[in-house]
Amino acid sequence: MTALTLTDVCKSFGAVDVLKEINLTVEDGEFVVFVGPSGCGKSTLLRVIAGLEDATRGTVEIGGDVVNNTPPAKRGIAMVFQSYALYPHLSVRDNMALSLKQEKQPKSVIEERVSKAVQMLDLGAYVDRRPSDLSGGQRQRVAIGRAIVRDPKLFLFDEPLSNLDAALRMNTRIEIAELHRTLSASMIYVTHDQTEAMTLADKIVVLRDGRVEQVGSPMELYNNPANKFVAGFLGSPAMNFLQKAPIDLPQGGTLGVRPEHLRLEKGGRIKGTVTHVERLGGDTNLLIATSQKEEMTVRLFGQDSTAVGASVELEFDNSSAFAFDTNEQRVAF
Amino acid sequence: MNAARQNRFNTFAAHGALILYTLIALFPVFIIVINSFKDRRSIFREPLALPNAESFSMIGYETVLKQGDFFLYFQNSMIVTVGSLFFILLFGAMAAFALAEYRFKGNTLMGLYLALGIMIPIRIGTVAILEMMVQTGLVNTLWALILVYTAQGSPLAVFILSEFMRQVSDDLKNAGRIDGLSEYRIFFRLVLPLVRPAMATVAVFNMIPIWNDLWFPLILAPAEEVKTLTLGSQVFIGQFVTDWNAVLSALSLAILPVLALYVIFSRQLIRGITSGAVK
What we know:
The complex is a heterodimer of chains A (333) and B (279).
Chain A: E1 2-13, E2 16-27, E3 31-35, H1 42-50, E4 57-62, E5 65-66, E6 77-80, H2 92-102, H3 107-120, H4 136-148, E7 154-158, H5 166-183, E8 186-191, H6 194-200, E9 203-208, E10 211-216, H7 218-223, H8 228-233, E11 240-242, E12 254-257, E13 263-264, E14 270-279, E15 283-290, E16 295-301, E17 311-315, E18 321-324, E19 330-331
Parallel strand pairs in A: 3-8, 3-9, 6-7, 7-8
Antiparallel strand pairs in A: 1-2, 1-4, 4-5, 9-10, 11-12, 12-18, 13-17, 14-15, 14-17, 15-16, 18-19
Helix pairs in contact in A: 2-3, 2-4, 3-4
Chain B: H1 8-36, H2 40-45, H3 59-66, H4 70-101, H5 107-119, H6 126-136, H7 142-167, H8 170-178, H9 183-194, H10 196-212, H11 215-220, H12 229-233, H13 244-274
Helix pairs in contact in B: 1-13, 3-13, 4-7, 4-10, 5-7, 7-10, 8-9, 10-13
């Protein structure tokens, strides 16, 4: 069964088209990540799915039912917000129980589901506290708990980790991945962080300016990007793009090489000078100005003693490089 | 204040300035209260002196309590003030929520229309209001005053509250919608508690002018049984003779209820004023 089907979904605010003919399916149990730069419409798309915004055109189907005219509470979804959005006047327990009370579930069911979620998220010590007495990480867990108790057909996450610090972000990321395995529920996750997208997703949807650029598994997108935008957006450090490439390109084309696919080699095809070195311990990033006055990044695994100002020669395998035409579409070479 | 930044002289100067201001602000009130306990001769001979055994007199309070139905006036003023504040806050907050939250045609126009009320004094329309009240049979009822004051206070309330409501997190309202709360519950349970300081600010700004107003009670509700305190006190001020004891006593008494209301709102008010600056 498909958890979600979007057909030709468009959304305009006045004259501004925010979403343009989005077609998409999410299979049951799939973890789909919407990723894109800010302003690309990914949050708006999530809000259209949730029913917080109406689609201007097109249909939204959740679990096989068209829900265009169904209010958010009846769509069988649950949402986790960036700012947690916990009810400040309710305890942790009541925050989780509120939606079930609204559905007029019997007390025993509410009690059972809430305590299950509390146990799953390790919130036992905090059930009677107010959100204001909790730390950021705990608040986000409560927000996730509030989604779990609803037992929804589809989970929606709107940049849930953006307000957490780096260490906590990684822990929570792993927790969300584990949660997905335990619940085997369908989830849609919006982020602008390509690391989150790569690590969590079964399927990544890359959006730009309200259009879907490419859909695929993280490795598919990494190994086989359809265009220059997707190639440059996924991967860190970002892919190098060279106009003046040492190989034959179509007129006005661009060569793309990932920093990790470049190596220092005597007699390499690219010559340049090191302008900056970032030593991360595990790997070393070299920023290089090529003899053709273009900038590149090289990622070397392990520690490297190359100093700023050194002249270097770089080599890469043609099989790991990409070529793009003037319309930024991928072409063979 | 942090001990490291504390400077004895600065602290002293700041407190000195504040105390001085307090004295200046409270001086007229103090004069009214002490003179209300003196006999007529002492009021004029030594207006600044405290009442002593010789000049002490309760004659003013006796007159006030004997003449006219003062408790009734009190009650009327209280009903009008509290009733008006209730409706100003209720309708003001609801209109503000609609303007801040919903996209609809004419939203901006509606906001500007409501803001007009801030610029045009309601007293300009007194004659029309009086005609309407006569036709609806509301003359000489407290409802006439409550309705007029609600109209008078609403524009500013909408203006201030809609600004505060825009600051309430969208995520919170959306979380409520996803959990199946009705728009009314989102408004009353989620949004209103968060703008409570702003509501208190609006309440205090509206309370004093309503309590002190003489114009509309005189025109719309001059009958004995619906007289407000301010109007009731006027009986002691005559064209040729004024019973100063009674006027001062009446004014002293009139301070008390406003003081009580102010104390109730003031804690919220301080939070309202500083809420933007101190997060």
